C-alpha cells in the first residue's frame, strides 16, 4: 500500500480517509487552506500522520508567497489534542532560515522516520504482549484506527498486529467500530481485510462484554498525547476500555512513537480535549438521529490514567513515567 501522506509535484498527497472503505482516492492539497480543511474533516487523521501533515504543511507554505509563521500557527491549531501536529510544524519551521528546500527535506526526513519508529515501537510492543499474555494464538482488541492510515505507512497499535500476524500468532482482532466517526469499522477493518487478518467488528458497547466472556487476551491502542506521568489521551472510549480491562485482568498496552510524549505536561489533566461538531451525533449521512433541539456532548478524546495502563511502548521500549 502507498503512504497515507506524502509529497508529490509541489503538493501534499493524502489518502482521503473520509471515502474509505467504499472508495480509495487520493487528494492533492496545494494550499494551507486545503490542508487545514483536510485535517479538520479527518481526511487525514491519527496522531503520527498529523505530525507529517504539520511538517509538510510548513513545506507547502514555505514555497508560497505567504507569512509562513502565521500559516504554521494555523496548521498547528487545526486540531488541539494530538501533540504530534504542533511537533511536526515546529520541526519543519526550525529549517525556515535555510530556505524552502531545507524545510521540505526536513519534512520528508520526518516521514521516513515515522515509518521506522512505528515499526520499531510496535516490534517492542509485540514482545510486551507476548510476555503479558500466555494464550496462543492471541485475541486482540483494537479501538479507533492506529494503523497505516493513522501514520505515514506502518501503524502503531495495529503495527503490533502486523508483527504478530506474520508469526502466525493472531487468532482474531475484535475491532471497536468507534462511534461516532467509525474509524474502527471503516478504517481498521479495511486495513485488517487488506492483510487477511481474521477480525470481527463490534459496537464499542460490546467491548466489556467481550472481556467478561473471556474473548480478549490484550487491548492494544495508540495515543494522541502522553503526559510526563504516563497518562494517555486517545480516542473517546479508551478510558472506559481501560477500566473494563483492569476489572477483567486483561493487559492494556499503548503503542506510540516518542513524538507523542508531551514532557511539558506533568499529567493528563492539562491535555486539551477536542470537542467536535454536534452533527456527528445528531445526524447520519444527512438523516436526523435525534429530535430537533437535543444538545450534544461530543468529546473526540479522553484521558486514561497511567495506573490503568499495563505498558506504554515507544521506539525506545517501555516508557518510564
Ligand atoms: O480523531 P482521530 O481519528 O484523529 O483519532 C485518532 C486516534 O485517537 C488514534 O488512536 C491515535 O491518533 C493514535 S494513531 C497511531
From TrEMBL:
What top-level branch of life does the organism fall under?
Answer: Bacteria
Mind telling me which InterPro entries this protein's record contains?
IF-2B-related, IF-M1Pi, IF_2B-like_C, Initiation_fac_2B_a/b/d, M1Pi_N, NagB/RpiA_transferase-like
Biological process according to GO? L-methionine salvage from methylthioadenosine
Which pathway is recorded for this entry?
Answer: Amino-acid biosynthesis; L-methionine biosynthesis via salvage pathway; L-methionine from S-methyl-5-thio-alpha-D-ribose 1-phosphate: step 1/6
Coiled-coil-forming residues are none
Question: Catalytic activity annotated for this protein?
Answer: 5-(methylsulfanyl)-alpha-D-ribose 1-phosphate = 5-(methylsulfanyl)-D-ribulose 1-phosphate
Where substrate binds, per the record, is at 45-47, 79, 183, 234-235
Q: According to the UniProt entry, what is the EC number of this protein?
A: 5.3.1.23
- Give yes or no: UniProt keyword Amino-acid biosynthesis: yes
Record-annotated active site: 224 (proton donor)
| Entry keywords, A to Z | Amino-acid biosynthesis, Initiation factor, Isomerase, Methionine biosynthesis, Protein biosynthesis
Q: Name one GO molecular function term.
A: translation initiation factor activity
Q: Give site residues, Transition state stabilizer.
A: 144
**Family under the similarity heading:** Belongs to the EIF-2B alpha/beta/delta subunits family. MtnA subfamily.
HAMAP family assigned to the protein according to its UniProt record, in alphabetical order: Salvage_MtnA
Q: What does this protein do?
A: Catalyzes the interconversion of methylthioribose-1-phosphate (MTR-1-P) into methylthioribulose-1-phosphate (MTRu-1-P).
Q: Report what the protein is called.
A: Methylthioribose-1-phosphate isomerase
Q: Identify the coding gene.
A: mtnA
